[in-house]
Specification:
By secondary structure, this protein is an alpha/beta fold. The chain contains four helices and five strands; from the N terminus they run E-H-E-E-E-H-E-H-H. Helix 1 links the parallel strand 1 and strand 2. The protein is extended and about 55 Å long.
Amino acid sequence: MLIAGARKLESLYMLPALCRLALFPNVTIIPVVSEQQTMSNAVRKGSPLDYVPPLSRDDVVYCAGAPAMVEAISHVASESGAKCYSDPFKPAVSKDDKAGLLSRAADWLGSSELKSGEMLTSPPLSMADWTPLDANGESQSGRERRERHSVSADLYPNQAAPA
């Protein structure tokens, strides 16, 4: 059984894949949304927790999503003796992060920590341009651009660096 939940019908993740999966024998898909919808009787209203069947020690539960929902399902699984693997989707916030987007944008635009000859790099425009940050909060591509620019400034101190 697979219980897929979302706040709105439009937010159900990978809906076409769920429809294909439902065609297999012995597969039950239960789509659940918390907002009332009138598109299909197959989509139930409520929380995924409302549709978890009685569990036994032989069951294995996988859950992912909002931390409160994952915690509740993990608790139900634990009480029945079922194994539970969970992945709560928590926002990526470090203790150094400011409260919101505007604070981070202001910090980025007003950064005065650049050394002479360094250029401020813009954030990635798409996920194709994204690279993970290292322990210093810096992407590999951003560090390489700054290193190239610093070397160019050393080689050509009196003129603009070649592209």
